[in-house]
Amino acid sequence: MLLAIDAGNTNIVFALCDGDKIKARWRIATDPKRTADEYAVWLKQLLGLEKVKFKQVDAVIIGTVVPRALHNLSTLARRYFEVEPLIAGHGAAAWPMTLDVPEPDTLGADRGLNIIAAHAEHEGDIVVIDFGTATTFDVADYTGAYKGGVIAPGINLSLDALTGKTAQLPKIAIEKPDNDSVIGTTTHSQMLIGVYWGYVAMIEGLLDRTRQEIGRPVTVIGTGGMSALFPEGMFDAIDFDLTIKGLIMLHKQATS
Predict the structure, then answer these.
(1) Model pTM?
(2) 4, 98, 142, 144: most buried, per Cβ within 10 A?
(3) Per DSSP, what are the bridge partners of residue 152?
(4) Which of 48, 64, 87 is the last residue of a domain?
């Protein structure tokens, strides 16, 4: 079985995969100081719930946007699973698609993995919007070539900045407003409107301009937990496992 590890800025997702099937997934807060031994103790219990032992995991692939987390995750693979991990975007797991950008080495692992999975599952030009710590838009043409994208502050990051840099605004949880009005009557509703509908306007505006620039029909795929918050019709598809699917596909390509 394959252990696919998606190390993001806020959380690390571990997915236990059997072929193309994701059997289980677990999430833990990203902490570059967490040791391989600590990961192993935590994973042993979770694998046990699936009746899986360390020796049954015979491959590990890691995609990370947190370089400081890579060493301990790689040590976990070598020490406890006794395998050399594949690293997304490097070595045998180098990106299989054309990176039609001037600085290809700066492409984040999660963004490359999303493009791999989205292109495999959808025809034509695609736009992947990933709602993570940052919100990213990534564009690939109908051949699968990566063309570039957008990096914007994530919705929670925007909300944290709003409440953290103001003296009297309360902390609120992001949620879809009760109605479509953009005229709030309380501080709470005004903040929610500003963050939520402001974000919707940003997404719709960037998508409109992206479509105009591409000049062909595009398929829009949302991923990341926050994608479920937004209006139906904004995306052609939502896939919460897109990054993990990319890791599975990249592992298959690297080992075939």
Answers:
(1) 0.94
(2) 4
(3) 135
(4) 87
Structure tokens at 111: 């963004």
Q: Which of 110, 130, 141, 239 is catalytic?
A: 110
Residues 82 and 115 occupy one common structural domain? no
Per-residue pLDDT of the chain (256 residues; tens, 9 = 90+): 999 999 999 999 999 999 999 999 999 999 999 999 999 999 999 999 999 999 999 999 999 999 999 999 999 999 999 999 999 999 999 999 999 999 999 999 999 999 999 999 999 999 999 999 999 999 999 999 999 999 999 999 999 999 988 989 999 989 999 899 999 999 999 999 999 999 999 999 999 999 999 999 999 999 998 899 998 799 999 999 999 999 999 999 999 9
110 is catalytic: yes
Q: Three-state DSSP class for 25?
A: strand
Task: State the pairing for strand pair 125-131/218-223.
Answer: parallel
Q: Are residues 129 and 156 in the same domain?
A: yes
